[in-house]
Amino acid sequence: MTKDFAWRMSLVFAFTFMSLFFLTPTLFTQLPGWWKGYMPKDKISLGLDLQGGTHLVLEVETQKALEGYLDLIAGDLEETVRAQSIHVKKVARDGADKVQVVLYDKLSAETVQNLIGKKYPDFEAASPSEEGGFVTVRIKLSEKVAQDKKDKSVTQALETIRNRIDQFGVSEPAIQREGINHIVVQLPGIKDANRAIELIGKTARLEFKLVHEGASSSGTPPEESEILMEKRTDPTTGAVTESPLVVNKKAIITGDLLTDAQVRIDSQFNKPYVAIDFNSTGARLFDQITAANVGKRFAIILDNTVYSAPVIQERISGGSAQISGSFNEKDAADLAIVLRAGSLPAPVKIIQNVTVGPSLGQDSIKKGLLASGVGVALVIVFMTIYYRLSGLVANFGMVLNVVYLLGALAALGATLTLPGIAAIVLLIGMSVDSNVLIFERVKEEVKLGKSALASLNAGYDKAFMTIMDSHVTTLITAAVLFQFGTGPVKGFAVSLSLGIIINLFTSLLATKAVFGFIFSRFEVKKLSI
Known about the structure:
alpha+beta, six-stranded mixed sheet, Multidrug efflux transporter AcrB transmembrane fold, five-stranded antiparallel sheet, Alpha-Beta Plaits, 529 residues, Gyrase A, domain 2
């Protein structure tokens, strides 16, 4: 032991220095100017229960997602029917769960029924009915598939919201599903709650539609058209006005075909805009559409609002476009975030919005620190009385455990929650347990008449496998908690996992290094244990 204590002590000093280095921003409120270069700047992140923040409960309007799916089926079915040279009057969604095909004769209706049975097995077709001189075929989505579509819309909304929040820059948010169609979002330390709420709830349905040239926006629009409002900004006064614009109902390109969206600055007017890139399918469609519609206006629509409707001057290849409008830099940045993260499959309603004040967090911190302090003090007293000078070495290892764990949390950018503080208290107990196992083995060796150094070495060797087994099984439990847990449970799992690994180092290596230092400096004939 006396021969290899040097490298062990070097490791202890190195990890202690690194832990204090990363903890410096947390320990000191004001740092010198030279520190701000490449040195750590972030304090240990605190969870919602410690620093306050925003707690939201969102409701996904799953019926809207189902209706959107039926609209897509109606569009695809119309193209399929027309491709078969079948004359069709109209294909559209009928109510909340059906699609209707209006035809001119019964023979065509039978052909369409057979076509639907082959291509759309999830739908159930009713018998054709004659209505107003036309023959109508209605198909209904099966109950099981409809419920599956609703369930998937909540899952997709969850992932979309998670992507938006990650890009918004919230540290360690908690986002989880609750019940059938609810999503719980916790945003610790959020400073601009209203902006975050707007970002989360924006549907962000991006569509490109051709403007219906010559149609009047004051009367009833043509059957295949709709009236949307176009935003315009006066470049001199900055005043925003809205004017009606008639566009085709059918979108020729949607935001689903985007691969990227970034904020750019217009060099001519010094105004921000959002540059977008399409995937290969979108690039091909964009190229074909712009080539076929040179000289026509092309409306760029987000959530049923026209942001711009430029004239297509020439064919646009390469799969890139831009969205300009009445943006400031914050609006453009938020729009880019929601476009990159994808559109929500259905609108979401905020049914609960609770702001957790920092006073609750401070109270929790004080009580948690008090509990930790009392626990540490009691353990120190017990170990010193029961194991004497060896107990002081164990206490040193326990303090190192806490320092290393906090340093690791700071270095990894992990979040400390109230359950995380509980994990620290548990780590103190595990540290004591490991040292008790070692010291009891040492006592057994002393009773056999071995020398102090031989007893210490044998005690560490014999306790090694027991300590390793207990820590590995606990680490597996922590990994399961992290994988399947959410929110505070994950915070507990992170602190526990780091603590287990750190405790293996301190109990098996750091305390042994201290004993090695003592044996190298003093002639020890009897252990104080």
